[in-house]
Each structure stands twice: as C-alpha cells, then as structure tokens.
Amino acid sequence: MNKRTFLKTGLSAIGLLAIPNNLWGMEFFPTTKNTEWAILYGTWCGTARDASVWISEGMDGIADVFDVRENPDLSKYKHLIIGGAIRSGVTSNELQEYLAKHKEIVKNKTRGLFAVCGNMRQPVTQEQYKNLIDNHLAQLTTSGKIPSKVFLGRITWGLMEPDVQKQMKAFPNMEEYDNLKRSECMEFGKEILKSVK
Ligand SMILES: Cc1cc2nc3c(=O)[nH]c(=O)nc-3n(C[C@H](O)[C@H](O)[C@H](O)COP(=O)(O)O)c2cc1C
Question: Does the pLDDT value for residue 147 go beyond 80?
Fold first, then answer.
C-alpha cells in the first residue's frame, strides 16, 4: 500500500472522509441551535465572512452564518441579515444572483443589511450608505428602513487572485490594511436584535 492509499484508508476508517460536502458552512458554529436567524454574505477574501461571524457573536451567537456560494436554503429562517464585500461599487455576482433568484424568501424577512468596503481607507459617510445600502443592498432585498451598516474592510495580498493583486498594487500608496473592527460588528448585531424585540 503506498502512502497516499494508506492515508486515505486510515482517514476513511475513522470517518473523516464521510463528512458530506455541504457541511462546510457555519450552521453548527459555535454551537448547534435551532435558530430563527441566518446571516448570508458574499466575499472574495474573507472580510465579510468575519464581519458576519462577529455580527452573530454580538447576538450571542444565535445566527447561522452562510457564504452565498453554499447556496443555502433560507426558507426555514424567520429573520435574515444580508451583506457583502464591495468590489467596483457592488457586491459579488453570486450574492446579487442569489438575491434575485430568492426574492420571495428574502422579502419581508431581512432585518439588517451591511457592506464591507475599503473606501480608500477614509471614514464612512452618508455617501457610502446611499450607494451601497439604499441604492444597492436595500433594492436587491426589497427592504425598507432597517438597521444598516457600512464597515471598513481590509486588504490581504496573499488572498487575492494574482491578476487582481497586480491591479491593486498598481494604485499609488496601496498597501495591506485591516480596518474591520470586531466591536463594531458585535454592536451592529445587538442593534439588529433590539430592533425586532
Ligand atoms: C479588486 C478590488 C476592488 C475593490 N473595489 C472597491 C470599491 O469599489 N469600493 C470600495 O470602497 N472598496 C473596494 N475594494 C476594497 C474591498 O471592499 C475591501 O478590501 C473588502 O475588505 C473586501 O472584502 P472581502 O475580504 O470580504 O472580499 C476593492 C478591493 C478589491 C481587491
């Protein structure tokens, strides 16, 4: 038996290879709960994923957290929070397409919206709320006035596709940064929870 076959047989024997592919979300993180809440996010490099987990942490961990690429079934949830990272002024195609396809499920259930953007490392103003929330996510989810937040994000060269990294590095003074704050994400989670009580 070669090393590869040995390893595979060994892992199968202890059940590690029996994990189904669709269990890569955070439905059971940090603990299994029969929750009414889900957070759906779109990301390229993970900032919006961390924002989502920290929003849930602010809600004492009651929300299941899904990357839109998992194509989750959100029909069983009563309350949704939806957000995503921004590239070229909009969220990912996957998130936009998901929201267009599941309009009926998302409609009337969305309790919070958020965007994660670089904003040239400048403080967020009403302009970002108008562009990213009112004119983008609120329309995609057909939401009225609900708690919304624009977070500043981060740049991590090693997580970027090589061509994107090259394109970004061509901008003057562009360097890695990290402006996402866990405390702000948690605070937003608390605000949403309060708004439905
Ligand atoms: C190719 C590219 C395009 C971007 N476009 C914008 C943009 O239009 N506006 C903005 O404020 N930030 C922009 N950013 C910054 C991202 O929104 C920021 O890095 C964010 O944290 C990415 O989130 P993610 O890690 O979840 O993908 C861009 C970043 C990249 C790499």
Answer: yes
